[in-house]
Amino acid sequence: MPETPQIQLPETPQLAQNITHFARALRQAGLPIGPGRVVDAVQAVAAAGFTSRLDFYWVLHACFVSKPEHRVVFSQMFRLYWRDPQFLEHMMAMLMPAVRGVQDERPARPGEKRAAEALLHGTQADQVPFDGELGTEIEFDASLTMSAEEKLRTLDFEQMSTDEVAQAKRILSQMTLPVQPLQCRRLMAAVRGPRPDWRRTLRDAARQGGEIQSMARAKRRLRWPNLVVICDISGSMSQYSRIILHFLHAVSNAQGAGWARVHGFTFGTRLTNITRHLAQRDVDAAVAAAGAEAQDWEGGTRIGQCLHDFNRDWSRRVMGQGAVVLLITDGLDRDDPVALAHEMQRLQLSARRLIWLNPLLRWQGFAPKAQGIRAMLPHVDSFRAGHSIASLKDLAEVISNPDDHGEKARLMAQL
Amino acid sequence: MQKPDTIEQVQALLTGQGYVCGRALAVVVFLALKLGRPLFLEGEAGVGKTEIAKALAAGLNRRLIRLQCYEGLDASSAVYEWNFPAQMIAIRTAEATGAADRGALQAELFSDEFLIERPLLQAMRPDQHGAPVLLIDEMDRTDEPFEAFLLEALSDFQVTIPELGTIQAAEPPIVILTSNRTREVHDALKRRCLYHWVDYPDFQREVEILQARAPDISARLRREVVGFVQALRREDLFKKPGVAETIDWANCLLALDVIDLSPEVIADTLGAILKYQDDISRLQGSEAKRILDQARADLEPT
């Protein structure tokens, strides 16, 4: 078998430069591309040859894309950058206000806007072969379409009183959610473990010239379960969800406090994954970022639809290793109760434990009259109030006790 | 066998193994072979990610080494392990015969004789047919520590055994990693690989795949089966049927001597394509007939 042939860089330095610019533009559009990938891409193009446009596309695709979500952005960027003349024309038409009326029947496809913004960003620095005049106009308009895109409101986090934040922070930072650890397959050294650890025994013996002095033992390692929080941020819940997001931030950043991973989702009219934002160290920055991501703050609620999206797109990803699910909503939903009950059942079946926190329970004499609540209640493991710091403290006890069902039994009797 | 020199050769090689492969996939496979980089394949279950490795190994006449990932997979079951019972016996034997030359014994205890090679180490070893194909299947099932461990193995193609030193592959193995995306694999690992998302095939390609994998089926039924499955993928299902399910289903129909799809036949064999009770119950009653009619209507013009 001969060695892999020496790879030559392309003789035309122009191509390498173009690929570099293209990579830069992709980076601008949010794809994580380091310099190493660019070198790879140049080598890959050299290896595959430069014969057909389609091959060229897939070569760059293999080097620059590393997540399915990136494929759309990549293909839009590719078309824009390696000039598909018709497409460029369309992009211009779509982005320019004068011609927009003609183009209204065809809305922007996913990724187009990101691609356009990334390519046109910093055109003055002439990184990209566009003339600056067009660039400025389009950029200006892109921001306009961005704000007009979503009619739902974005929340202003400044409304939260400093006193409230301080109090929540102080108490939540002290709060832990003690959970039962789970046994996993890996072994760890333990003096009185139930299993002999042959590997370590022999290693010790070899050090003693083959003399076995004691039997090393091992036991199963313990691991912590994951926590998935699905939080309603619709109008009726907004006051409450802010505190919950603070709480969520405290839990997901408490290293070594139990949970292996904490995934956060918000929903109103649509589902948003805010896990990444919660990793920010500063709680205010994290909550603000999460609020900017979720476009449906204080809008309406479509619990059934959002749970459906969660079950289809995320459930197998974040609950693969048996996660405890915290569902935080008032359960006021006017959609089809049968579909809602079905999604709840699916959620409960895939979760280790499904806990529903409902702030409505704070009222004395609360009865499950709303059809949404009636549909959801049979499919939760535990039903708790969640309206105050005190009730969040109770939650810590619920999580540590798998037999606790909260108010579920009492309310089920009233159904 | 030599590695292919052009993209067309890759395509021919895979087709020769009954793996119908699109241009996009051929390009990345070619690159992976040419550049000696691991290939990271993601996609829904049952679109043929694992099959690529098998077809590649068979086509190149290389050994296929498969490392099936699971949660808790660690270095001792992925790379190597010392054969402790055998070592123990060797120590006792040396003691009993009185030939306890300590240095010699120790050198012997940690030699290849007592080394149990696991897939990663096997893949680093030279092979007479050329470097083997290493399939690391379902990457997303391992945990992060193992993923981090793979970084060294995949970028430098070497593993370190403290007692023996570093073992580097003379020729890098052809590495294929697959993931169902039940969890996100870390960027550091992806960065070392070429990436490709394996999508569901289009109608024409799926017919070709079925022709290659279930050749005994009549052309008409084949088109109907593929049309129905493709229509099913457009439905809002919990788990969409993959290519593997299409092939399974076709074989089921063959075993039942079905010559024509009908709602009754579909209802009887639905378990071969849909694996969730929710999805199956959705297709009860007239729903299957509707999709079948729609699929047939789509087929008509061609």
From TrEMBL, chain A:
InterPro entries: UCP010256, Uncharacterised_CoxE, vWFA_dom_sf. It comes from the Bacteria. Pfam families: VWA_CoxE. PANTHER family: BLL5662 PROTEIN, BLL5662 PROTEIN-RELATED. This is VWA domain-containing protein. It comes from Parasedimentitalea psychrophila.
TrEMBL record, chain B:
SUPFAM superfamilies: P-loop containing nucleoside triphosphate hydrolases. Pfam families: AAA_5. Residues 35-213 form the AAA+ ATPase domain. It comes from the Bacteria. One of its GO terms (molecular function) is ATP hydrolysis activity. PANTHER family: MAGNESIUM-CHELATASE SUBUNIT CHLD, MOXR FAMILY PROTEIN. This is MoxR family ATPase. It comes from Parasedimentitalea psychrophila. The lineage of its organism: Bacteria, Pseudomonadati, Pseudomonadota, Alphaproteobacteria, Rhodobacterales.
